[in-house]
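Please decode residue identities from the backbone states below.
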């Protein structure tokens, strides 16, 4: 994270994009470190000369003495110094009644720096929310019972017990006790971002012609979403164990039973077998221009041997008319990949299905439209329809 986050700050135009006083206030929290690297920082508001280009060699070659808090602050500011990030910061600070002391004609970097100086937690929360929205591969779990909406207050009250259980799991799996759950209500859904530690990593750092070994524990982010209308849970996690953990823990702490999300499967690729090219029709789904099958993987057992057959093309149905031969009666469709062209998009988006529970969308904003098409074509099972 450190090398990436500092790269932007090796450009003079970036550093000059921050108000002089705000930059000095931000870096002044680590005044002694910069002095040790040969740069004396003026006091904010003073008229002492200050050449921001003197900072560039420091950010180009960070050493082991560089405070991690400095690296993390620059990382957060860099991630949110965009028009979208600036809008999110201003929206969050206004909702909290915080008036940022912005300079005249502030840049996106100015807004991010001022928000960090006012309340670091603001940037951390927005960054976690943005990280959550980047999750594109989800495993879906349907409920055994009828859908139930959840009150935000009830979920917030359950978070300490939920975090405690998650901490026990991650500590037992060599990931430490660093769990923190962030809650983001979004329309009829409750989004939760789970921050936890990862397995230790060991790296070698070359400095002054000597190699120095250091060990650190990276942070990870998972996303869990509860849909109060359909009652389903969708989970983004790194391992099967984590997915099952969230499936049980969310049911237990939010809905009273660890087996709550044990309903029917959500996805099926059987329409490819039964309908062929007709399952790619889009005329009844406004907003989609066309859909194409680009890849399939089928599994078959022959004399106790597992065989996986794969086909791939820019438009599979256009390459071969005998599509029925692709799907032997005793074969299972493991995965199907599609390209879907939305009317508002310049390029087609990727959609991947892995029955019974997993879907990957390359563009989160079109998730609801994609699911409408999948449901209309039968890729979402009838008993999974919301």
């Amino acid at each position: 994270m450190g090398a990436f986050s500092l790269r932007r700050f090796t450009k003079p135009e970036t550093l000059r994009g921050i108000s002089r006083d705000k930059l000095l206030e931000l870096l002044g929290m680590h005044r002694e470190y910069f002095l040790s690297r040969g740069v004396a920082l003026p006091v904010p508001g003073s008229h002492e000369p200050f050449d921001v280009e003197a900072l560039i060699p420091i950010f180009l070659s960070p050493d082991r003495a560089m405070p991690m808090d400095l690296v993390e602050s620059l990382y957060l500011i860099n991630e949110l110094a965009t028009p979208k990030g600036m809008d999110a910061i201003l929206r969050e600070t206004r909702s909290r009644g915080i008036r940022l002391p912005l300079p005249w004609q502030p840049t996106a970097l100015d807004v991010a720096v001022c928000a960090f100086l006012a309340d670091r937690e603001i940037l951390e929360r927005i960054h976690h929310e943005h990280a959550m929205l980047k999750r594109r591969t989800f495993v879906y779990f349907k409920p055994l019972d009828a859908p139930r909406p959840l009150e935000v207050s009830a979920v917030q009250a359950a978070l300490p017990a939920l975090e405690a259980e998650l901490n026990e799991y991650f500590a037992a799996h060599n990931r430490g006790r660093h769990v923190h759950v962030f809650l983001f209500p979004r329309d009829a859904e409750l989004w939760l971002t789970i921050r936890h530690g990862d397995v230790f990593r060991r790296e070698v750092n070359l400095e002054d012609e000597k190699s120095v070994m250091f060990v650190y524990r990276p942070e990870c982010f998972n996303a869990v979403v509860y849909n109060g209308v359909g009652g389903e849970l969708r989970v983004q996690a790194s391992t099967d164990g984590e997915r099952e953990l969230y499936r049980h823990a969310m049911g237990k702490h939010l809905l009273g039973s660890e087996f709550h999300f044990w309903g029917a499967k959500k996805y099926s690729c059987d329409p490819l077998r039964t309908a062929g090219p007709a399952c790619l029709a889009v005329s009844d789904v406004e907003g989609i221009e066309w859909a194409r099958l680009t890849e399939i993987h089928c599994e078959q057992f022959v004399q106790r041997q597992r065989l996986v057959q794969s086909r791939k093309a820019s438009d599979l149905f256009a390459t071969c008319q005998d599509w029925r031969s692709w799907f032997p009666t005793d074969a299972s469709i493991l995965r199907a990949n599609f390209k879907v062209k939305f009317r508002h998009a310049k390029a087609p988006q990727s959609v991947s299905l892995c029955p019974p529970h997993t879907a990957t969308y390359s563009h989160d904003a079109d998730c609801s439209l994609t699911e409408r098409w999948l449901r209309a074509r039968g890729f979402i099972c009838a008993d999974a329809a919301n």
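Observation: The chain has three domains: 2-132, 137-255, 270-384.
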